[in-house]
Amino acid sequence: MNDLKFSTTNSDIAKLLEISGTLFDISAATSVLGWDQETYMPPKGVIHRGRQLATLSAVYHEKLTNPKVGQLLEKLESTKVSEFERFSLADRALIRETRREYDRAVKIPERLVREMAQVCSTGLETWKEARLKKDFSIFASSLQKIVALKKEEAGLLGFAKSPYDALLDEYEPGMTGEEIDRIFNPLRKEIVLLLNKIVESGKPVSEHFLKGKKYNFNKSRKITEKILEKIGYDFESGRQDVSTHPFTTNFGYADVRVTNRFAGNDLGSSIFSAIHEGGHALYELGIDEKIGDTTLAGGTSLGIHESQSRMWENFIGRSKEFWEYWTPYLKSQFKLQLQNVTPEKVYREINEVRPDFIRVEADEVTYNLHIILRFEIERDLIAGKVEVKDLPEVWNSKFKEMFGLVVPDDSQGVLQDIHWSQGSIGYFPTYTLGNLYSAQIYNTLSREIGGIGEHVSSGNFEPILHWLREKIHRFGGIYEPKELIKNVTGEALNPKYFVNYLNQKYSHLYDLT
Ligand code: MG
Predict the structure, then answer these.
(1) How many angstroms is it from 443 CA to the middle of ligand 1?
(2) pLDDT digits over 231-286, tens only?
(3) Å from CA of 276 to ligand 1 middle
(4) What is the distance in A from the centroid of ligand 1 to the CA of 86?
(5) pTM higher than 0.90 for the full model?
């Protein structure tokens, strides 16, 4: 049942596997170039790199949209039911995923792909300038074009109810805007309720240790590597380099790399980035070799991927037990900066709740409000209910309503995120889905493993990683997210686990009744 082998004796499966392997190789090579561009490439290298990436992307598109791929898929899909059932789990998933990718590639004409690339390239530049000058109007006409092209794309891809669904489906297969709305609405109410109680509690803010002191680069880097290694990241199959924004990239199941940044005055930020990217990397390193180097060798969706990074970062990394284990080591490395610190003090510092303008700096309680706001706006944008020119006003009034704060300028409001300028519309909800999945999965994991607090406080992360590998990682893209979450936890996505987690943790931290 859980056999992840392909039926290579079937010549059609073998052919499909070969195509999938070639596509994987091209995309891995693309990732190597992208990784190099963000880490080691000298500035002038960009002259060549743009063309190299464009060439690889054209080769990929050509291989994928070859009519023979379509014919092969049709042949496999029209296999008699009795024979189709003999296909293995991996065969069926490979057919499904190749079909998904093939359809997307052939439905979108090259003209649209080129136009989108062009508009996004201008979009990125105007967005940067607009953000710098705190003036949305500089970016408005680019965004207008991007939205128009995304609507065209949605129309070509097809959708049951709303064009937004087609865009969302790219990042979270099987999810619809309506469903997100059904999940986000009650979630928003619960979070606002908790946030109000926290703000009213008037509890004094914590002392700051990890943030605001001077931290040496080499030692900080060593600490993050030690943490990565301890949670199970294998440096024989990966490395941590420096980039402007931390990310994870996959060249194959035995070479998954992470990056980090070291600001010098914010050790916490580097530590949590390491744990976050480490969580993504452990997922991809845990993929079963048998489906490695194929289209199935990535995570199954952005939401599930994010559940893995957030689980390590928040449920484990922001727990008191985690800091009971790590505080003594950190103190030994930074004697001066951390001489008065205790695990309890770190725990309070890293879980401080403060409504603020910037999403990427948000705490666990307010984070999802930032996402819900973006989801509502992009959904209405695609539905034509909101005009691009009105975005700052719409953003600011929603923000006031949700956070009780007045946005001082567009760079701290509608212009803060890069996503829309890159044509990534339908992406934001996956961050919150990741949080919700992680709470639900962590709930099952804690129940099944038992004594998880003791494991974490003694630095024993092996049982956690082992469980995640068995239940989630090894399957890669075999199961779609909805099926996976049901297999793992026994039920469909249920936000109550996340709400319970927040209420419990923060009622305790802020002495709420
Ligand atoms: Mg992430």
Answers:
(1) 20
(2) 999 999 999 999 999 999 999 999 999 999 999 999 999 999 999 999 999 999 99
(3) 7
(4) 37
(5) yes
